[in-house]
# Entry
Amino acid sequence: MIKKLLLLLFFICNYAFSQEEIPFSVRFQDYIQGDITFIANNIVNRKNANEAYNKVNDFSKLNDEFEMSYIDIDNDNSTFSSSSATIIPNKNAKELIFAGLYWSATYKSKIGHKISGIFLTEGDHENSINDIKIKIPSQSSYLDITGKVIFDGYENETNKKNAPYTCFYDLTDMVKSNPYGEYSVANIKATQGYLEGGVAGGWVIYFVYNDSTLTKKYITLYDGFAFIQRTIEINLSKFLTPKTGQINPKITLAALEGDLKLDGDNVRIKSAVNNRYFPIISNTRPVNNFFNSQITIENEPFVTRNPASLNTLGFDVSLLSFNNTKNKIITNNASQTQLKIATSGDKFYLFAAGFSTEVDEVFFDIMKKEQRAEKEKNVSMNREEKNETIVRENKTPTNEGFILKRERITERMPISLRKLNVKNTDLKYGYYIVSNVFANESNKIKYIDFLKKHQIESNSFTNLENNFYYVYLKYFENLEDTQKAYDSNLDNTFFDDYWILQVD
# Structure
């Protein structure tokens, strides 16, 4: 059986012997006085799925030896799969900074059969893998959410055999005022029955919070998707540890892996002292079987969940402080290290990554000052764009909701460039003539359709800094051509307002 590994880590990633399907990018990154934790659960189990499966010895089975079924614990007719987990109140946690939900599963078809060793499928694969339900502590009923699809293996020939996928949804605003209590996540899709390589699936919510009783830290989260065949190396950077004192770094990993009995996978980290790689292990994470279908925090199973299976049959999440006695790995005044995840033959699907460590006080203050300056700049830009959006979206003198100026403009205002970092969009470098910005996606679609009816071609993109929808009319590689088009009303084809965005 091929072991399927979908990792949720947190780092900047460089790969050896891998095929990157989706480039990794920052999901969350901050310098905080606080910490990171998680809650998680699986959403498929063997028959009698709501009963915990606790075999963790040699008598346990592989997940492709079981006919797998949805866990559904909520007695709610609107859900076909559901499981829950509880985050315990922390009296010292003063502010929630980030709450991010990931869900992932193997989903080739609705049902899978195994006949004489041959795997067969039944029922269509539904594309709505990012539409699920969640019940948060402040609500007594489910909320419908639509997440971002990070990767869908069903659309990729390399991974279509078992079709792993992963999605993400930012819960921060939804739970910021009341993050503690029970969370139920429902209607995550996975194949039922049998699947080559095994059926697995689950969810994890990561929480980052301020706590004045803790040390100042650097915490970063990335996601993407890479098909790993042997070993990956991950470079960890953008931190500076204190000049003195004990350093206590953490890693967190979440995975769609194979099974408890399949070993050969290990995690190692490079020492700055002698350049050796030391294994990361714990009481629950053996040196040669780190990913072993458990959900653990430090050295203990995470059990405030329903069901609380000790063996989650292919879904694996861990958070642990690794052994750094006498700073033998992460040293004082360190600014980088490398992590290796290796296998002796099993294959991995990497989709996210992360790391946290204490940082130097002076370095911390400098980084926070830079963050405040950048935030003030973004607030100023967003205020301009939001004001523009409100005016534009309320300008509704026609049934279509928009009007176009037809009077000829002989002289426009001088170009004033607004800038956007390329990492916050999927656009290429260059200059974009933007005609409108929307907070509401449906209004963006209406506006593009309106332009099309008037024989004006346009495109759109999402600015990840503010989640606004931008509609642009033209793209140019250089400023000279942009200036000509700007001054000429796009060769006298567009007389309404527009402005220039530079992506650099």
